Amino acid sequence: MNESTQVHGSSGPPVLLLPGGHVSCRGFYPGYPEALVADPGARVILHDRPGTGVSPVPGTLADASEDLHALVGRLGMGPVVVVGQSLGGDVALHFARDFPDDVAGLVLLDPMPCGDVELASTIEGMHARTTRAVRLPLVRWLLRRRMRSVIERAIENTGLRGPYADAARANADIDVRELSRAIEGLTARAADLDESDLPRGVPAAIVSADHEPGRIGDSARAVHARIAEALGVPVTRWPGTSHGLHLERPEQTIEVIRAVVRESASRA
Fold it and tell me: Where are the beta strands (DSSP E) in 19-155?
């Protein structure tokens, strides 16, 4: 192992957890490794791809599938059930397309943007503009202050406590410049995804947040429905959940992962 990769558990079906954005997987899924090692007896891989988290290796979003393929081969633990939230869901989906023999199952937690060029362009452009703005120290301070306020309000509204609240608070201190670098090429990546190339029949689950109507919310719903149809599974939507549903509904999310792990194990 190295500082960007950890494995919990010594035997059982392998589960690879991928975080959203550019942050480290450590602490992103609080309690998940322990829960999945206990039931269904999985080996849980935490991995920060190059250019993200604590990885000392530079890398880009375009390199993600190759990196995961190399990781699975290096660990000798494939095929794996891949769990990804937000951008991690997009990475997981591309990995399944590029290296289907490495993937035993997929759990996509409010994945974005998964082939929607307009949505990807909106996200990539928004982060690029923010990166230019935060070159000014005052703007950087104001943005961080606003993010902390938004997250504290969300924590209060959703009733997050303990490590789940801590994981949410960690998002207030992200470096938007690093995030922008980590998602460079998102639009081109979305244009390259053809749903017909996805491995239909692989055990999978897509959990969608309860997005409010609007441009981004409507696009997210459409993306999730299209990907679910391509994979041949329904979309699960939990009322009242936000993009951080893995923190708001941890027990339910873990049960979704367990179900996909069990199904994939039964087919092995």
Answer: 43-47, 80-85, 103-109
